[in-house]
Write a structure and sequence with these properties.
This protein is an alpha+beta fold and 156 residues long. Helices cover 30% and strands 38% of the residues. Strands 1-2-4-5-6-3 form a six-stranded antiparallel β-sheet. Helix 1 packs across helix 3. The longest helix has 21 residues. The protein is globular, with a radius of gyration of 15 Å. The two termini are 21 Å apart. The relative contact order is 0.17.
């Protein structure tokens, strides 16, 4: 992928996040992700997002609620399929998440979304959530998930 293609895909992903906010300004996902999320890295099969965790995602124990983590994986792998594969009309058929370590308010995380396989009707992806190090690299693994989607588009 050329540097121009890379920048085009990152711009498209960030535009998609902003457009989602504009379309549904009071929606659940928008309140928690749109203002705090940006696409930062892309390859042919991977799209990585950076998210600054707001306090609105916390559970009563002071860490990010597991449902919020599942939502991050659901939403961002969906955006990744759109950006990487051009597929937009799909619904989730399975989502599984493993929680490795707590995520806290103010943490900056990296969510690496990998498009694993795109078949005629099924799309498979994995996501890995890391704590971002002060140097900007992937640090400790915090959670990971697998996401399967059914495409409603005529043909992939």
């Amino acid at each position: 992928m050329t540097p121009e293609q890379t920048q085009e895909k990152l711009d498209k992903a960030n535009h998609f996040i902003k457009a989602s906010y504009d379309a549904v300004p009071n929606g659940f996902v928008v309140r928690y992700l749109a203002g705090n999320t940006k696409a930062v890295e892309v390859t042919n099969s991977t799209l990585t997002f950076e998210i600054v965790i707001p306090d609105t995602m916390n559970n009563p124990m002071g860490s990010v609620h597991g449902g919020a983590i599942a939502t991050i994986i659901d939403e961002l792998t969906t955006i990744a399929h759109y950006i990487l594969n051009g597929t937009m009309l799909h619904v989730s058929t399975n989502l599984s998440v493993s929680y490795v370590s707590a995520i806290r308010q103010g943490d900056t995380i990296l969510c690496e979304c990998v498009s694993r396989n795109v078949g005629k009707t099924l799309l498979f992806s994995t996501a890995y959530i890391y704590r971002k190090t002060p140097e900007g690299a992937r640090g400790q693994l915090l959670a990971f998930g697998k996401h399967t989607k059914f495409s409603m588009e005529p043909k992939l």
